[in-house]
UniProtKB/TrEMBL annotation:
<keyword id="KW-0547">Nucleotide-binding</keyword>
<keyword id="KW-0378">Hydrolase</keyword>
<dbReference type="InterPro" id="IPR011545">
    <property type="entry name" value="DEAD/DEAH_box_helicase_dom"/>
</dbReference>
<dbReference type="InterPro" id="IPR014001">
    <property type="entry name" value="Helicase_ATP-bd"/>
</dbReference>
<comment type="similarity">
    <text>Belongs to the DEAD box helicase family.</text>
</comment>
<dbReference type="InterPro" id="IPR027417">
    <property type="entry name" value="P-loop_NTPase"/>
</dbReference>
<protein>
    <recommendedName>
        <fullName>ATP-dependent RNA helicase</fullName>
        <ecNumber>3.6.4.13</ecNumber>
    </recommendedName>
</protein>
<feature type="domain" description="Helicase ATP-binding">
    <location>
        <begin position="18"/>
        <end position="146"/>
    </location>
</feature>
<comment type="function">
    <text>RNA helicase.</text>
</comment>
<dbReference type="GO" id="GO:0003723">
    <property type="term" value="F:RNA binding"/>
</dbReference>
<dbReference type="GO" id="GO:0005524">
    <property type="term" value="F:ATP binding"/>
</dbReference>
<keyword id="KW-0067">ATP-binding</keyword>
<keyword id="KW-0347">Helicase</keyword>
<dbReference type="GO" id="GO:0003724">
    <property type="term" value="F:RNA helicase activity"/>
</dbReference>
<dbReference type="Pfam" id="PF00270">
    <property type="entry name" value="DEAD"/>
</dbReference>
<keyword id="KW-0694">RNA-binding</keyword>
<dbReference type="GO" id="GO:0016787">
    <property type="term" value="F:hydrolase activity"/>
</dbReference>
Length: 146
């Protein structure tokens, strides 16, 4: 999967992180920007999904709209041949459109905490089948300054 999108060689973090993630183990990644962390957790998620089940099975939280949309794009590119259904739920976009897309069946939701919480509160996002959770840039997500 990774080679089909132009990666010639796995980075160190990808070599250490993809297999444990694919085995369903808890993984904590910490590395410099641009080292392949996003591709690592996206690959792990894509390997664990049950594609016959069109329910949200993975939730990725990101601190900004831009990062959430970037993660959605990586997930789409890596999962192109697998038929992954992914959607970014971020503020500043149509709530009704998010609700329609979620109702149509999504494997992975990537989003910002505020919009994801809103979708959960409205019961548009059902957590019953979520088996994978990624907190990207957790230092920013858990900081009191944000």
């Amino acid at each position: 999967m990774v080679c089909s999108v132009g990666f010639e060689k796995l980075s160190a973090i990808q070599q250490r992180g993809i297999v444990p993630f694919c085995k369903g183990l808890d993984v904590i990644q910490q590395a410099q920007s641009g080292t392949g962390k996003t591709a690592t957790f996206c690959s792990g998620i894509l390997q664990q999904l049950d594609y016959s089940l069109t329910e949200c099975q993975a939730l990725v939280l990101a601190p900004t709209h831009e990062l959430a949309q970037q993660i959605e794009k990586v997930m789409r590119v890596l999962g192109d041949y697998l038929g992954v259904k992914v959607h970014a739920c971020v503020g500043g976009t149509s709530v009704r459109q998010d609700q329609r897309i979620l109702a149509s069946g999504i494997h992975v939701v990537v989003g910002t905490p505020g919009r994801v919480f809103d979708m959960l509160r409205r019961q548009s996002l059902q957590p019953d089948h979520i088996k994978m959770f990624v907190l990207d840039e957790d230092d920013k997500m858990l900081s009191r300054d944000t």
